[in-house]
Design brief:
Blueprint lengths: L4 E3 L2 E3 L5 E6 L3 H4 L3 E6 L6 E6 L5 E3 L7 E6 L4 E6 L8 E7 L2 E2 L3 E5 L2
């Protein structure tokens, strides 16, 4: 299965943490940049973070310092560690590489 699959979403209180996972099989995944995006209700999909095949990372300003993207190529998995979550982080989070999108995982930040 080349299409990525996200997991790890859920309900968390403000200030809490979650770790999302994006998994896909195939060596092409390990050779690709992988990005996380999110789409909040009524809003357009937006970039969150990216990790290149060499491990270089890039973040949206709204999550920098709170979110950390990492990858484990041996497990064909990319992670998004989300700390200090805010209600405005509520969204469906998607993983994408080489134009292929997962189905998303819902993150809800609410007390």
């Amino acid at each position: 299965q080349v299409q990525p699959a996200e997991s790890g979403g859920g309900l968390v209180q403000p200030g809490g943490s979650l770790r999302l996972s994006c998994a896909a099989s195939g060596s092409i995944f390990a050779l690709s940049s992988v990005g996380w995006y999110r789409q909040a209700p009524g809003k357009e999909r937006e970039f969150v973070a990216e990790v290149t095949n060499l491990g270089t990372t890039n973040y949206a300003g709204s999550v920098k310092g709170r979110f950390t993207i990492s990858r484990d190529n041996a497990k064909y998995t990319v992670y998004l560690q989300m700390n200090s979550l805010k209600p405005e982080d509520t969204a469906v989070y998607f993983c994408m590489f080489r134009g292929m999108w997962g189905k998303g995982t819902l993150v809800t930040v609410s007390s």
